[in-house]
Amino acid sequence: MSKKSIIYVFSGTGNTYIAAQKIAENLYKYGYETVIYPVEKNKNGEFENVPDPNDFDAVGFGYPVHAFNSPKFFLNFVKKQLPEMDEDNFGKRAFVFKTSGEPLKLNSASSRDLCGLLRRKGMLPGMDFHMIMPHNVMFSCPDAMAKQMYLHTCQMAELVAYYVANDMYRDVRFNPLFYFVSTIFKLQWLGAKLNGPWHKVDHEKCVHCNLCVSDCPARNISIVDGFPKQGNHCIMCMRCSMNCPAQAISAGILKPYQLSGGWNFDALAANESLPANYTDNKKIGRFKCYKKYYNRTWAEYDNVFNY
Ligand SMILES: Cc1cc2nc3c(=O)[nH]c(=O)nc-3n(C[C@H](O)[C@H](O)[C@H](O)COP(=O)(O)O)c2cc1C
Question: How many domains, the chain?
Answer without folding.
Answer: 2
